[in-house]
Specification:
Blueprint lengths: L23 E6 L6 H12 L3 H14 L1 E7 L1 H13 L3 E6 L3
Antiparallel strand pairs: 1-2, 1-3
Subunit structure: Binds to the N-terminal domain of the chaperone ClpA.
Family: Belongs to the ClpS family.
Function: Involved in the modulation of the specificity of the ClpAP-mediated ATP-dependent protein degradation.
């Protein structure tokens, strides 16, 4: 078996580098269904947030219509958004603006 002529020399491949990780966000949106106490419980149970942090996020959802509840790699944020859906909350994933 012969090596095809299209295989690059190892010397030619040294300039490769990984793309930088860009942060993504999980946004939880207000809905007319879930009680505020339930949303606090979800944030505490799933994310492990303190009562104060979970309450602050819930109030942002309630008053502002949404809150960023987590930031990180896209795949992880997609898992978190799906978990919020599983709890009955409306959540989306978006690229971080910062």
């Amino acid at each position: 078996m012969t090596i095809p002529a299209t295989v690059p020399d190892l010397e030619e491949v040294t300039g490769l580098s990984a793309a930088p990780l860009e942060p993504w966000e999980v946004v939880v949106w207000n809905d007319p269904v879930n009680l505020m106490s339930y949303v606090v419980r979800v944030f505490r149970t799933y994310f492990g947030y303190s009562l104060d942090r979970a309450t602050t996020l819930m109030l942002a959802v309630h008053h502002d219509g949404h809150a960023i509840v987590a930031t990180g790699p896209r795949e992880t944020m997609e898992v978190h958004a799906q978990a919020m859906h599983d709890y009955g909350l409306w959540a989306t994933v978006r690229k971080s603006s910062s």
